[in-house]
Design goal:
By secondary structure, this protein is of the alpha/beta class. The protein is about 40% helix and about 15% strand. It has helices spanning about 5-15, 40-55, 90-100, 105-115, 135-150, 165-175, 185-200, 220-230, 255-260, 305-320, 340-350, 360-365, 385-395, 400-410, 420-435, 440, 480-485, 515-530, 540-545; strands spanning about 30-35, 60-65, 75-80, 125-130, 155-160, 210-215, 240, 280, 290-295, 300, 330, 350-355, 370-375, 380-385, 450-455, 465, 470-475, 495-500, 505-510. The longest helix has 18 residues, at about 305-320. Bound molecules: 2-acetamido-2-deoxy-6-O-phosphono-alpha-D-glucopyranose and magnesium ion.
């Protein structure tokens, strides 16, 4: 096969010229931005995916087009590595450089990537590409596909799928279908079959009711949940709201991010009995949170920390009853509620590690355990099982029914990445087996009140952190001042970090009371404004406000 790199330049110049002069960066969630600026980025990512596949000796590389929980005008793209992980960090830099070169320099630049990485350009390459349901996604998908074609790679288009489905397809293909069939039906079959076997015809148990409201965020998750419904035959009774067929826009006033950040239900909620289980996923269905309203009408959230603790307790019990000697660990970020960490360490006695924000850090750390559970408080997470733990569980399953249950649980989990629907099916399985409703679930511990702020500064990179973002090392003196402020609050904890997805500094605070939490967040926010070049309006002091 001969490849003429001129073709890449010709495609770029004629069809996907670079329109934006601004430098963009491959961040924690790939490239994100306004959709109209992304055509050239997508084309080049098609080119890069093809090169990456060749670099990885013909393994399938995935490309997902989505802006996740962002508003409708945005879109984005991320690459999926052969084992379903996020793109390797050294290639993030290659990706950033590639999208920022001019059209004129593109041909040379691609030649340099090929040379530097000793890529055999004549070898085969396979790229899978999928997209969310934003109206500009099909146009951007075509640009990715053209990037693959320009370098004579093989491209397979999956149409509208969730992000975790794309990860699943990539792993299924690269394991020669040991993980499942790399098709939409293959994905449904694997999850539904495990779910129904685990339910074993028992649809209700104790306080557990077989009924659920599912907020699809007007995104891909809604469509796919409807597909699950068709195939599940009411083994789970799910009502899907915010289906994306009405005037509502993706993530607007709905979805996991809205529910978690605003701490209130999504639009479109039907009137339901208090304590009805409700679930919100984000636009590409890789995040999930639960919520309900209590008998006084108060909104209550069950976020990623709650899911992590529920799963950790359940798996710990299963392992112990199978008498398996497996190391189970839980991975969180600094955003995990302090009460959840205390509960895991003191009650569940499961070891916890804390890593920087971003799925790749959590996933990587979780791989160190035999069974690694990871969740961000925002609802992104999954569980990974080492090959040796799978072998031990399979062996035990020959005689032990609990180990058989554990094997089905493994099949129910999408280990490749956080998967809102798979996580939800797991939570439903656990609640059903325990005979729990949301009241039982939420009563395992009390969350500490917490508050987040966004602070605008001249340059957010002046903030540098260490110790999984819990300690700020630059600008000098800021951490000392934060420590002094925090010391005044009972169970106080706070940290600051530059966002990886927005041009802001984030502040997190928690303390024993709501008032203290708001005050602590305010004081830390003020410190950031003072010492890290704040440019926004002055923060409002909540204690002054309370007297107004
Ligand atoms: C991205 C990350 C998510 C993280 C969030 C933090 C992935 C796939 N996604 O969405 O894990 O929680 O960024 O955003 O890694 P921030 O840096 O703006 O706070
Ligand atoms: Mg998402």
């Amino acid at each position: 096969m001969s490849i003429n790199l001129r073709t890449v330049y010709a495609f770029a110049r004629e069809m996907y010229p670079k329109v934006s002069k601004e430098t963009i960066q491959y961040g924690t969630a790939g490239f994100r931005g306004k959709a109209e600026l992304l055509d050239s980025v997508m084309f080049r990512m098609g080119v890069l995916a093809t090169l990456r596949s060749r670099f990885r000796e013909g393994s399938v590389i995935g490309v997902m087009i989505t802006a996740s929980h962002n508003p409708e005008p945005d879109n984005g793209v991320k690459l999926i590595d052969p084992k379903g992980e996020m793109l390797e960090p050294s290639w993030e830099k290659i990706a950033t450089d590639l999208v920022n070169v001019s059209d004129q320099d593109l041909e040379q630049h691609v030649a340099k990537i090929i040379k530097d990485n000793e890529i055999d350009i004549t070898s085969s390459s396979y790229v899978y590409v999928g997209m969310d349901n934003r109206y500009h996604s099909p146009r951007l998908l075509k640009a990715v596909a053209d990037g693959v074609i320009a370098l004579k790679g093989n491209v397979r288009e999956f149409g509208i799928v969730t992000t975790p489905m794309m990860h699943f397809f990539v792993v299924a293909a690269n394991t020669k279908e040991a993980y499942g069939k790399p098709t939409e039906e293959g994905y449904y079959d694997k999850l539904i079959s495990a779910f129904e076997k685990l339910r074993n015809g028992q649809l209700e148990n104790g306080n557990y009711r077989n009924r659920l409201i599912f907020d699809g965020a007007n995104g891909v998750g809604a469509r796919k949940m409807l597909q699950f419904n068709k195939r599940m035959n009411k083994s789970l009774d799910v009502t899907v709201i915010n289906q994306g067929v009405g005037p509502g826009k993706i993530n607007e006033e709905c979805g996991a991010d809205h529910v978690k950040v605003q701490q209130r239900p999504p639009v479109g909620m039907p009137i339901v009995e208090p304590f009805t289980r409700c679930v919100s996923v984000d636009g590409d269905a890789d995040r999930v949170v639960y919520f309900f309203t209590d008998e006084t009408g108060q909104f209550r959230l069950l976020d990623g920390d709650r899911i992590a603790t529920l799963v950790a307790g359940y798996l710990m019990d299963l392992i112990q009853s199978c008498q398996l000697d497996l190391r189970l660990g839980l991975v969180q970020t600094a955003y995990a509620n302090g009460a959840s960490t205390d509960y895991i360490v003191n009650e569940l006695k499961v070891p916890v590690s804390c890593v920087p924000t971003g799925v790749k850090h959590l996933h990587h750390k979780a791989l160190e355990y035999d069974i690694g559970i990871y969740f961000e408080a925002n609802g992104h997470g999954t569980i990974v099982f080492s090959d040796s733990s799978k072998a031990a569980i399979s062996e035990a399953a020959k005689t032990n029914p609990k180990a058989q249950t554990l094997l089905l649980v493994i099949d129910l989990i999408n280990e490749t990445v956080g998967d809102a629907i798979s996580d939800m099916l797991l939570v439903e399985t656990i609640l059903n087996q325990k005979g729990w409703d949301v009241k039982d679930w939420i009563s395992s511990y009390d969350d500490l009140p917490n508050q987040q702020l966004k602070i605008q500064v001249k340059d957010r990179n002046v903030i540098q952190t260490t110790d999984a973002e819990r300690v700020c090392v630059k600008p000098e003196g800021l951490q000392d001042e934060i420590n002094q402020v925090v010391a005044n609050y009972k169970r106080g904890r706070a940290f600051v970090r530059p966002s990886g997805t927005e041009d802001v500094v984030r502040v997190y605070a928690e303390a024993s009371t709501r008032e203290d939490t708001l005050q602590l967040a305010y004081e830390v926010g003020r410190l950031v404004q003072k010492l890290a070049g704040g440019v926004g309006p002055e923060l409002v002091n909540p204690s002054n406000n309370a007297h107004l």
